[in-house]
Specification:
Helices cover about 35% and strands about 25% of the residues. The chain contains 18 helices and 25 strands. A hairpin with a 4-residue loop joins strand 8 and strand 9.
């Protein structure tokens, strides 16, 4: 079967959930037995979101091949269980960068380089390149219809219907139907204007999905269909849900996948959704609960910890408990108030991050967890700070620190490794403090050997694993022996034993830190082993109270 393309655009305003809608549609088509892939086209000029502030953009999601991508790729992987790559997230910056490089090389034979056809052709090349052997490729266009940055992308997808044939291309427009609570009315005018804007550039949506607080009745759907020139049965409601894993089932109940199958002439087959039904049943009917404290500095924007949040939910599913997340601002935690701030928590998690802001509060929380036997999970920077806290308070090295925060520390427990063997690129990598920010990190999937008879082995149950990284600094092995003598176990190392990947304290109910980001490898149907075990330990701690 020739690959079919579904383009998902958004109107009225941003953050409507295009990524979730695209991922859910992909899950439904996958449940019909089709091979699917998804791509995100981001209109911003950054080459990738790697150096963007999480307050502006949410988390940076890392793929196996080391791409720093939009957080929507996390939704794609969680809903489809298919690994994404560099090719699944393309920005305006990358498109323009490619075109400019070609122009400098003389590829355009001295011609005038223009948005049409050169930029649009490069966009089309990226779209077609992601859909090698797939039955369906879903392409989400970031931003909102009408944004000046998004126009080249919309022009490119407009052209693709002519290039590929009407029967192989489908346009889905996601829009908002505001509910005016005082009047008790749903308003369709913003949707009409959004579709008008889309049609003005030559794209007629085939399907309209309406985000709303409440269900749309048939008369309202008929009105939208009439004013927006779509089939009466091609307007669907995506109503607000309690948890995001209900979205595929809600869209299925609306008949979205059936309409897509008719329009694209896909094989007639019912979606098998038992796994999704079981998942939502478990989420709606937990047998208990745990309260986890996330001690970080991006607590005002939950999107900064999106994958982390979801991985904890998955860990709860594996243990039949709901997970209450308490976000604790690490800048407000001190040794004097840490007991008060950590009171009532069944588990403490310190996530990754960059920069010195809030670090001392995280260290205070880690010390509290260690000394009070509260289950603790440190991820990336969280692991590094667990090592610093141990060095300060167990090895009695009060000035122990990371070179990231204090280059002159007499005890740099965490340091900038200048040279190491990169198991992903299969070559020696070198860097120094002045290297470009975007090019000095260990990014993507790396192997790790797990020691027997450890908490890590108990979780993974296999001697070698692969996990995704996104960090610049490493544990300084000059302190390895001294810390081991005091009781810290280095339960995960790189195959050549040069890099520390997992640390734990065996005398503690559950105290583990990992240098990688396990949250990027957790999906609802297959919760990550470390999150599963962390929530299990927290559940046991709660029951013991």
């Amino acid at each position: 079967m020739k690959t079919k393309f579904i383009f998902v655009t958004g109107g009225v305003l941003s953050s409507l959930g295009k990524g979730l809608a695209a991922a859910s549609i992909g899950a439904l088509l996958q449940a019909r037995g089709l091979r699917c892939t998804i791509m995100k086209l981001d209109p911003y000029i950054n080459v990738d979101p790697g150096t963007m502030n999480p307050f502006q953009h949410g988390e940076v999601y890392v793929t196996n091949d080391g791409a720093e991508t939009d957080l929507d790729l996390g939704h794609y992987e969680r809903y489809l269980g298919v690994p994404m790559s560099q090719n699944n997230n393309v920005t305006s910056g990358r498109i323009y960068n490619n075109v400019i490089q070609k122009e400098r090389r003389g590829d355009y034979l001295g011609g005038t380089v223009q948005v049409i056809p050169h930029i649009t052709d490069e966009i089309k090349r990226s779209i077609l390149g992601v859909a090698k052997d797939e039955d369906v490729a879903l392409i989400e266009i970031g931003g909102t219809v009408g944004d000046i940055e998004g126009q080249p992308f919309l022009e490119a997808i407009r052209q693709l219907r002519g290039d590929l044939g009407k029967e192989n291309v489908l346009y889905i427009h996601l829009t908002l139907i505001p509910y005016i609570r005082v009047a008790g009315e749903l308003k369709t005018k913003p949707t009409q204007h959004s579709v008008k804007e889309l049609r003005s550039i030559g794209i007629q949506p085939d399907i309209i999905i309406c985000r709303s607080e409440i269900d749309l009745d048939q008369s309202l759907k008929t009105k939208i269909a009439l004013f927006c020139n779509v089939d009466p049965d091609a307007v669907f409601t995506s109503v607000d849900v309690k948890n995001i894993y209900e979205v595929p089932l809600k869209l299925y109940a609306e008949g979205v996948d059936q309409k897509i199958a008719i329009l694209l002439r896909l094989p007639a087959k019912n979606a098998e959704l038992e796994a999704w039904q079981n998942l939502t049943h478990k989420l709606a009917n937990p047998k208990g609960e745990v309260t986890i404290g996330i001690v970080g500095k991006y607590v005002d924007l939950k999107e900064a910890y999106k994958s982390l949040h979801e991985a904890l939910v998955h860990g709860g599913v594996a243990n039949d408990v709901s997970v209450n997340l308490i976000y604790v601002n690490s800048e407000e935690v001190t040794p004097a108030n840490v007991a008060e701030r950590m009171a009532g928590l069944d588990g403490i998690l310190v996530p990754g991050g960059f920069g010195s802001r809030g670090v001392e509060g995280k260290i205070a929380a880690i010390r509290y967890a260690r000394e009070n036997k509260v289950p603790f999970f440190g991820i990336c920077l969280g692991m590094q700070l667990a090592c610093i806290e141990f060095a300060r308070n167990v090895l009695n090295l009060p000035e122990a620190n990371s070179e990231e925060f204090n280059r002159l520390s007499p005890d740099p427990i965490i340091y900038l490794m200048r040279e190491w063997y990169d198991f992903r690129t299969k070559k020696i990598e070198k860097r120094d403090a002045d290297s470009e920010m975007g090019g000095t990190m260990r990014l993507g999937a790396y192997p790790c050997v797990v020691k027997p008879d450890t908490k890590a082995m108990e979780a993974y149950a296999k001697p070698q694993i692969e996990e995704r990284h996104r960090h610049r600094y490493e544990f300084n092995k000059a302190y390895y022996t001294r810390m081991e003598e005091k009781g810290m176990v280095f339960s995960g190392l790189s195959p050549d034993e040069s890099l520390v990947e997992v640390v734990e304290l065996p005398e503690h109910p559950w105290f583990l830190g990992c240098q990688f980001h396990p949250e990027f490898n957790s999906i609802p149907m297959r919760p990550h082993p470390l999150f599963r075990e962390f929530i299990r330990a927290s559940k046991i701690a709660r029951e013991a109270k």
